[in-house]
Design goal:
Helix content: 55-70%
Strand content: 5-15%
Radius of gyration: 26 Å
Structural class: alpha/beta
Number of domains: 2
Order of helices and strands: HHEHEHHHEHHHEEHEHEHHEHHHHHH
Strand order of the largest sheet: 3-2-1-4-7-6-8-5
Largest sheet: 8 strands, mixed
Number of helices: 19
Bound molecules: 2-acetamido-2-deoxy-beta-D-glucopyranose
Distance between the termini: 27 Å
């Protein structure tokens, strides 16, 4: 079945369920006791509310239908592709820095490869010296470990060598004379790898994390000075000075300058990249070169020491995993969750722009940049690989994050519906913020196709569903129904129990 047909079937099915529910609701109302206008209003309101609930039902059915289909990720050789693993951090305490470096160190050694470099792009203010200090400690550790492994390789003690590194690093030197390898080549090799464990400090805060990797891409392409988001007529005081350096000058900045990496693996400070995952993602990228974003599965990382809340989050996310994968297949397009492999050339071409032709598609004040990027770039779901991250620690940290995300969705809606939501909300902002308000404009407006806008607005719809459910319950006061509890019982069944069928029937997949 073609992707177009799957899309039509999915949305057709959803509309059909919606109409069915309108009819059933109309039948359920006791028209003899209910005034006509009130009854019609109820049917109309309920149809809207149930429409959003029925989205979940349509998704669940779609997941059940495609569950048997194996959705393979094509892989190709990727010998001529390069990648930079990009950890992003804004540290407030030493502990943040130490934890991020530990993850970065594991990612680096577990994915050691001639075509992969690793960089921490930091927006930290006060602890910069400490970040460099910790980097140097890890560099010394990496150097020692690689020296030991290289010596084991020379002595043919393969049991002491990590199998991934044996294949990707050491075996490339198998043809050499081992005693000259140890004395002449090995220190250079270890030194060269060690240098690719980097830390650079970004100067501007513009666009926050999204700006951190945008500037990294521009540095890698050959720009040390900023030319994006510098236009005061568009961005007012939020703009950065034209030709401000992107990063604090350092040997690491020079090491990335003009390396022209093909891909950037964007990560957060708490993302874990399991051994060999980066090269596997590069192989998938090589097999799907037309895609600008390769989105691996994101799995929650919990162990026995973690809180009950974290385990519950993991459970919730496990239930969602088959849904994400099935919907990416049905729609032929994946979301982007802020941690993924990005093709630099396509990203610069479509999202950032060049000095002569600026694009700046991500609005300067938007928080949910990933929704924007996924909407304008072709993205591919690589569900056979995964990155790991820690779930929120407890209900409070969950709530802080949720609030930030929802705020992001609201800001996003200013740009997606500039007349309907943007204008009135900007006026409200100007009225409440007074002098602090900065009027910002967008350089390039993005036109979204049907499927992209459906995906771009999915978090927004979910955000609205909660208050809508409340309205739905309130509306039932004073209305005469034949079966008064039936509608709410059905809805609760459909949103709480029915989606779990995916999990029960599809079984747990890791
Ligand atoms: C990868 O990057 C190199 C260096 O910039 C470039 O020559 C090559 O064409 C790129 N490969 C692909 C497939 O984009």
């Amino acid at each position: 079945m073609s992707c177009r047909r799957r899309v039509v079937l999915f949305f057709g099915g959803w509309i059909f369920l919606g109409l069915l529910s309108v009819a059933l609701n109309a039948i359920n109302i006791d028209w003899q006791k209910t005034p006509l206008w009130q009854g019609i209003l109820l049917v109309v309101v309920i149809a809207t509310l149930q429409g959003s609930v029925l989205e979940l039902v349509a998704i669940t059915i779609a997941t059940l239908l495609v569950r048997k289909r194996k959705i393979p990720n094509r892989r190709e050789v990727c010998d001529n592709l390069t990648l930079i693993m990009n950890y992003n951090l804004l540290a407030l305490a030493k502990k943040d820095i130490e934890e991020t470096y530990q993850r970065m160190y594991e990612a680096f050694l577990g994915n050691l490869h001639p075509s992969i470099a690793t960089v921490l792009v930091s927006a930290t203010n006060d602890l910069r010296q400490y970040e460099l200090h910790v980097r140097d400690n890890y560099r010394a550790k990496i150097y020692d470990e690689l020296m030991k492994e290289g010596e084991a390789f020379a002595a043919s003690e393969y049991r002491d060598i990590d199998p991934f590194r044996l294949d990707n690093v050491w075996n490339k030197f198998a043809h050499l004379n081992m005693s000259t390898f140890v004395t002449e080549r090995l220190p250079q090799i270890c030194e060269a790898y060690t240098k690719d464990f980097m830390c650079i400090h970004r100067i501007s805060r513009v666009l926050r994390k999204c700006g951190q990797y945008q500037d990294l891409m521009l540095l890698s392409e050959g720009d040390k000075l900023g030319y994006t988001y510098t236009d005061q007529t568009l961005y007012g005081s939020k703009a950065r000075p034209y030709n401000q350096p992107l990063f604090v000058d350092s040997p690491d900045v020079d090491n990335i300058f003009r390396r022209r990496f093909n891909y950037t693996l964007v990560l957060d400070g708490d993302t874990r990249v399991p051994p060999s995952t980066a090269i596997d993602l590069l192989a998938i990228a090589s097999g799907n070169p037309e895609y600008a974003i390769i989105q691996p599965a994101i799995i929650m990382d919990v162990d026995d020491k973690d809180t009950i809340f974290m385990h519950l989050e993991k459970l919730r996310q496990d239930i969602n995993a088959p849904v994400t994968s099935a919907m990416a297949y049905v729609l032929g397009h994946s979301g982007y969750y802020g941690k993924a492999l990005i093709k630099n050339s396509a990203y610069i071409h479509n999202v950032i722009g060049t000095r002569d032709h600026l694009i700046e598609r991500v609005p300067i004040d938007v928080l949910s940049h990933d929704t924007f990027e996924a909407a304008v770039l072709k993205s591919y779901y690589a569900g056979s690989t995964a990155l790991y991250e820690a779930p929120p620690f407890n209900y409070i940290t969950w709530n802080i994050r949720e609030r930030r995300w929802n705020k992001g969705e609201v800001l996003l809606s200013f740009y997606f519906w500039p007349l309907l939501i943007g204008k009135p909300m900007r006026a409200l902002q100007a009225a409440t913020q007074g002098k602090k308000f900065v009027k910002t404009k967008l350089r390039t407006r993005s036109k979204l196709d049907f499927v992209s806008s459906y995906q771009a607005h999915s978090a927004y719809r979910q955000m609205w569903m909660k208050p809508l459910l409340l309205v739905f319950m309130i509306l039932h006061i004073n209305i005469h129904l034949h079966y008064s509890y039936l509608p709410i019982a059905i809805i609760m069944f459909l949103i709480i129990i029915f989606p779990k069928f995916d999990e029960i029937i599809c079984g747990r997949r890791s």
